[in-house]
Design brief:
There is one protein chain. By secondary structure, the chain is α/β, with parallel strands linked by helices. Helices cover 26% and strands 14% of the residues. It has a single domain, classed as Alkaline Phosphatase, subunit A, CATH 3.40.720.10. It has nine helices and 17 strands. The strands form five sheets. It has a nine-stranded mixed beta sheet with strand order 5-4-6-1-7-10-2-11-17, sandwiched between helices. Strands 3-12 form a two-stranded parallel ribbon. Strands 8-9 form a two-stranded antiparallel ribbon. Helix 5 runs parallel beside helix 7. 48% of the residues are buried. The C terminus is likely disordered.
Length: 400
């Protein structure tokens, strides 16, 4: 097989217990990701080596551990940059740079604004990159306080908090939005589809699609949340942490159920647009020479312990475990499940190995799956390589 095309889809805050049967949140409608998983090698014990947004992208892009973060990287222009919330170190070669050097056309479509803050350099190595602005508190819009109405999204008797400011900034950013396709998620996946359409004849391509959804704000078109719970008297806490103020303000059971529904609906919304991108691959007849990876950086608490958000009760599996699936060319491995432990930074070495791309720079990742066309399996070797010492290998994939 010639060098395969590679598409990595990373969706921020997408819990691992959603896709597939028999999981806690399997009731959420994700038909496209369910189909993708049924056609893929599924890593059932993949975890984020670190958790925050940029730490995880550092791990994905460099193949090195990011916790604890010891490197000091100049970050002038960032405000109160914590450890790991820095540019990619200049002495580390990114995944996209390695693919570029190997002759790949490299593309990047994203609305994760953290990667594009001042001094942000996460677009290194990408020949094409499209940053969709406006998520969270990206400072793209400004206006008077009365330009937007916070009332539908905040408890009526909650005094002003820092969350009000963040919500106000977000609502300013989206105040002129009209129609579903102007939401951030469709813009990201339509951009990715355009890249595929424009470049699939130009040689092998590597495309990283990074969707901030379903990270807060849980803001999909209303009908998606309505599938799961609808009550005209309930608040729409687009920033779900407002529901955690029940000890200081009036938060009803309907408010809680509606907030859950906002997350569920956002996930379904994301799934719809992932399906659009997958359909584009089929339309262009790219299935047989394209590897499709789906993953996330972490999960979130959806009232599992009477709270919403992250970092509420220390490390929990629903936050730390990440989805990780590889749809390989052909159907030999479709539906295969791999049990041994894998970490987020292992994705880097695995993708290089699958594409046959070597690089002399040592990294800390292990190869958690190696495609062998002759044996049609995931390789079980534990080995040393120029890319780093494999601390573990993922054992022969065995179907369930």
């Amino acid at each position: 097989m010639d060098k395969p095309n590679i598409i990595c889809i990373c969706c921020d805050t997408f819990r691992a217990d959603i896709v597939g049967a028999g999981q806690k949140l399997s009731f959420i409608e994700t038909p496209n990701l369910d189909q993708l998983a049924s056609e893929s090698v599924v890593f059932d014990s993949a975890f984020g080596e670190s958790q925050p947004t940029l730490h995880m992208r550092l791990a994905f892009f460099t193949g090195n551990r990011t916790y604890p973060y010891r490197k000091t990287v100049p970050h002038r222009g960032l405000v109160a940059a914590g450890h790991g919330w820095h540019p990619i170190p200049h002495d580390e070669t990114t995944l996209s740079e390695k693919f570029f050097e190997a002759g790949y056309v490299t593309g990047f479509a994203t609305d994760v604004f953290h990667m594009f803050k001042p001094c942000g350099n996460y677009h290194r190595g990408f020949m094409y990159w499209d940053f969709i602005r406006g998520q969270e508190h990206d400072p793209i819009r400004r206006g008077p306080l009365d330009a937007v109405d916070l009332t539908p999204h905040v408890p009526d008797d909650l005094e002003h908090t820092g969350l009000h400011t963040t919500l106000h900034k977000y609502l300013l950013n989206v105040q002129d939005r009209c129609g579903e396709e102007e939401y951030f998620t469709p813009q990201v996946f339509k951009s990715a589809a355009r890249f595929v359409e424009d470049n699939h004849r130009n040689g092998p391509f590597f495309l990283w699609v990074d969707s901030f959804a379903p990270h807060e704000f849980w803001d999909a078109p209303t009908q998606f949340a309505d599938r799961y719970f609808e009550d005209p008297g309930a608040k729409n806490f687009l920033l779900p942490q407002f529901a955690n103020f029940g000890d200081r303000a009036t938060v009803t059971e309907a408010d809680i159920e509606r907030t859950k529904a906002l997350y569920y609906g956002y996930v379904t919304f994301v799934d719809k647009w992932i399906g659009m991108l997958l359909d584009k691959l089929d339309e262009l007849r790219l299935r047989d020479n394209t590897i499709v990876v789906f993953t996330s950086d972490h999960g979130t608490e959806v009232w599992d312990n009477q709270r919403f958000g992250k970092n509420q009760h220390g490390p929990r599996e629903y936050s730390a475990r990440i989805p990780l699936t590889f749809r390989m060319p052909g159907s030999e491995l479709a539906g295969t499940h791999v049990q041994p432990y894998a970490l987020s930074h292992d994705l880097h070495a695995t993708l290089l190995d699958l594409a046959g791309v070597d690089h002399p720079e040592k990294i800390q990742a292990a190869v958690c799956g190696r495609w062998s066309p002759e044996k049609s399996r995931i390789c079980t070797e534990t080995r040393s390589s120029p890319r780093g010492r494999a601390r573990h290998a993922c054992a022969t994939a065995s179907g369930r």
